[in-house]
Every structure is written in structure tokens, then in C-alpha cells.
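Work Package 3 committed the consortium to producing structural models of liganded targets before the mid-term review. Because experimental data for this complex are still outstanding, the team generated a predictive model from sequence and the ligand definition alone, so that downstream docking and mutagenesis planning could proceed in parallel. The input record is reproduced below exactly as it was submitted to the modelling pipeline, together with the SMILES string for pyridoxal-5'-phosphate.
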Amino acid sequence: MFFNFDCKLTNLAKKAELNSRAQFKKIEETFKFNSQKVLKAFLDNRVSEKHFSGTDGYGYGDEGRKTLDAVFAQIFDAQDALVRHNFINGTHALTVTFFGVLRKNDILLSVTGKPYETLQNVIDSKKKSHGSLKDFGIKYFQINLNKNSKLNFPKIKDFLIKNKGLKAIFLQRSSGYSFRKPLSNKDIKKLSVLVKSISEKIVIICDNCYCELVEPDSPITAGADLIVGSLIKNPGGGIAPTGGYIAGKRVLVEKCAYRLTAPGMGKEIGATLGVNKSLFFGLFNTPSAVKQSLKTAIFAANMFKTLGLETTPKPNESRVDIIQSVKLKNKKSLLNFCRGLQKCSPIDSFLTPEPWDMIGYNCKIIMAAGTFTQGASIELSADAPIRKPFGVWLQGSLNYEVSKMGILSGIQEVLLENNRTKIKDNKQKEAKK
Ligand SMILES: *Cc1c(COP(=O)(O)O)cnc(C)c1O
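The resulting structure, written out as C-alpha cells with the ligand in place, is given here.
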């Protein structure tokens, strides 16, 4: 119609779409369930036009802010929530959570190995005294996942028994830039049963990035005490302009609020300016954005499979987050995929993404993100650290049909380059003869 993809490619796409059918059906079911859950929370909390008018100054008595927290808490089965545009990103919300919950000499244990890159400086900023957790006397340990990307329960149990002073357990559901599988609510349930059987006091903190409203239930129902994430990912529904959230046990959310604003003030202050409506609207749109994202991820996985590439998750595996990774094997393919995807993005389609040093990451990163909101990964985007085995992580979509064009454009660039290389190689062989 409007895009001239190679007909071999469009035939592959048709096949990939057929192969996605069973998975699409499952996603439709969760979409129905979560849509009703979200609507119910809006009704129960009597969301009204008056909640859209923001406060300025100190932001006292902001009914919109209060109601948004209540709606969010209900959706995620939490006692309370702190949903704020004042969180700069997910890393900031997680930082506030750690500093809110942990005190000097407390022990923090990660049960999913090394956390997301940007959190590593939060835990221990090796070079300077940046005021990381370590600078404040908080001790950190980690236990890696086992080979099947599962929690290592024997090691965790052993640690719990030997370290009675353990204050908090951290688990990261989504993979970050690794090829492991994400953690499901079922995994969290197993962990929480074990942890709470040893001590009720240990706080389970869950990095919930990219997992919001993918499954029908919530990590909090499964036993997590706090969930944390970014509003330019799932729960902003592609509409929130910035922000993050913390939700869970009331006393813990309160501690985090004291860290975000000031001890003694907590949730009672913070002007919302004009942003409430976008945050409500985005939350309302989350089930839909998640559905579009999941369909895009599954379609992409099926496309890559037909090209013989290794993906996580595999096309038919059940989904816990909206991330789709694929090993593209060489740097050229990686760059070409990201560039092709950018070419079919609604914003900045004419720009060419280049690998770049980014704050908080320890190697060059390429990001294709022709998005309305800067860096929003609930919109179709693809990013990757430039390192072996040249995997790319793609996520997001506000419109499956549009995002399909992005995926095809990315793959077309890879295939074109492969053909050019083949022709060149053949010519060189000919010349040698
Ligand atoms: C995105 C993400 C974060 C937070 O990243 P920000 O870019 O700071 O929002 C943390 N953990 C995981 C697993 C993530 O995917």
C-alpha cells in the first residue's frame, strides 16, 4: 500500500502473523480482564473532571493526586501508591525506594543477580562518593539466577538463615540487557512464601518495569511488599509525559514519600501543575498499550524465528513483560535493524541512530526511538549495548499495525545489507578465480 517492502518479506510477515494467532488470542483475554479491572478502579474511586485541574506552589490538598494514588493502588492490589511526575525515571523511583526503606548497616540482597545497569551506581558508585547506598553504610549482596533464569531457592534460603539482619530483598522481573527470561508472579509467590516463612519483617522490593498489566494478577497479590516502575513504560500508557511510581504496603510507601519530598511531609505536598489528566488517561490506556506492545513483540519473535535467529522469549512462550530480544549476531545487523526501525517511526524518521555513551551505562548504546515522548519505551523502540552477541531489545507499541511497519523496515535493512555482503563476497571469489 504505502510502503514498498520486498514481497518475500511481506510473505514472511503474513506467515508470522498466522503463527502468532494463538498467542494473540491469549493476550486478548488478559486485555479484557485488565481493562475491566482498570475501569472498575476508576468507578470505585469516582474519578471526575475536577481531578484534572492541578495545583501549584506547595500542592496542598490536591484531590487529583490523591485519587490517582488510590486508583493505581486498587489496580495493583496495593494498600497505597505514590504516582508522581516528580520521579525523573524508573531509576529515580527505585533509588527513592531503597533510600526510603533502608537504613545504616541494613543488608539488601538482590536475588536476580546484577541489577539493571543504571542501578549499579545507586548501590555502589565505585569511583567517587556520589552518595550511593554504600556511602550510607548499607550492605549489598547478590545471588544469581540459575541457568534456567529461575530463582536459586537453596542459595536464597541459606542466605536468609545465615543473615538474620537482612532488611530487604530486591528482585528485578524484566531482563535488562540480558537474555534471561523475566520473572512471573508465580515465581514471586514462591519467593515470598519462602521469605515470609523465615521472617515476616523482610521487605520484598520488586522492580516491576515493563511488567505492569501483562499478567492478570499483581506482584503484590503474589507477596511483594513494594513494586516500582516508570511512567514512560507500561503504566503511563504512552500518554504520561514523565514520572514513576511506588506502590505497596502503606507504611513502606509512606517512608518512600518522606524520601521523595521531606520527612514529615511525604505525600501531602507536591504540585501536580497540569499533569494529572495525562497520568489518569495514561493509566486508563495501559491495558491497550500493553496489548499492542505484546502483539508487536510476538509478531517480531515469529519474524526472527523464520530468519533462524534466536529470540527471548520464543514466539510461543507465555509473556510476563513486553520485551522482545533477539541475537542479531554482528554489529552491522544490529545497527541496520535499529536504523531501519527508526526509518518507520512517526517522529524523526529521517534521523540515523548512532551508538553513544550514555550516563549510567558502561558501554556504548544505540537507541532507535522515534517516539512522541523522549525515550518512551512504551512506544515502539529498540535499543542495545554494542557488545557480543549483538542482541537488540525491542519493546512498546501504541498501534500494532504501525509497529509492524517498524519491525519490517528494521528487518529489511538487515537483509539488504546481508545481500550486499554476499554479492561482494561472491565478486571477490570470482576475482580470485
Ligand atoms: C527501564 C528499567 C529500569 C529503569 O530505567 P529508567 O530508564 O531509569 O526508567 C529499571 N529496571 C529495569 C529492569 C528496566 O527495564
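Reviewers should note the following from the model. The pocket of pyridoxal-5'-phosphate is lined by residues 89-91, 116, 118, 172, 174, 176, 207, 209-210, 230 (CB under 6 Å). These observations will guide the Year 2 experiments.
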